[in-house]
Write a structure and sequence with these properties.
The chain folds into 2 domains: 2-33, no CATH class; 51-173, no CATH class. It has 4 helices and 11 strands, in the order ααββββββββαβαββ. The strands form 4 sheets. It has a 5-stranded mixed β-sheet, with helices on one face. It has a two-stranded parallel ribbon with strand order 1-11. The chain is an alpha/beta fold and 175 residues long. The chain is elongated, with a radius of gyration of 28 Å. Helix 3 (108-128) crosses helix 4 (149-161).
Length: 175
């Protein structure tokens, strides 16, 4: 009989302090391990990106698209590219930068637009005081996989002259 009375006197309330501690730890762990990529890169219809096994995610920077028919900086068309006869493939055309837009190896309209972007990024970085927003000279390049190297060389040279020295190429991830 004594055993039966002892069982009835046990406290039947639930102590949730330990459970709350556990849930807090899980929540903090999930928040720390959750990462988002705030850079979305959507190629245009006139662009076929190459495939690669690269694993790095894109970072926030100026986005330069070299399509088959134009150069686009952050969604704004800068200039049109022209079609010229391909010396390696008779009867076929290739893409080139118009001669009147070139000053040596520099593409003048692209240089002016990229220099504006660099100055704006420097001003933003200086006024914010946040080292994460400081200008790093990084540029995302989306280049059509069939683009001639001469055009890509001129684009990269122009970007370098406009203070963009770190190139990140956007590619499709190879599965």
């Amino acid at each position: 009989m004594k055993k039966a009375t002892r069982r009835n006197k046990l406290d039947a309330s639930l102590n949730i302090n330990s459970m709350m501690d556990m849930m807090t730890i899980i929540l903090v762990f999930l928040l720390k391990s959750y990462s988002t990529t705030d850079v979305s890169v959507a190629p245009s219809d006139n662009l076929q990106l190459p495939f690669s096994s690269a694993e790095k995610a894109p970072e926030m920077s100026v986005n330069l698209v070299v399509e088959k028919g134009q150069l686009v900086v952050d969604g704004v068309p800068v200039m049109a590219l022209t079609k010229v006869p391909d010396p390696d493939k008779p009867g076929k055309d290739t893409v080139a930068v118009p001669e009147d837009e070139m000053r040596g190896q520099t593409i003048t309209k692209l240089y002016d637009r990229l220099l504006e972007k660099a100055e704006a990024a420097k001003k933003l970085g200086d006024s914010s005081g946040n080292p994460d927003l400081a200008f790093k000279g990084r540029i995302l390049l989306q280049v059509d996989k069939d683009m001639p190297f001469s055009v890509l060389r001129s684009v990269m040279y122009t970007a370098g002259q406009a203070q963009f020295g770190e190139f990140k190429f956007v590619v499709y991830k190879q599965e």
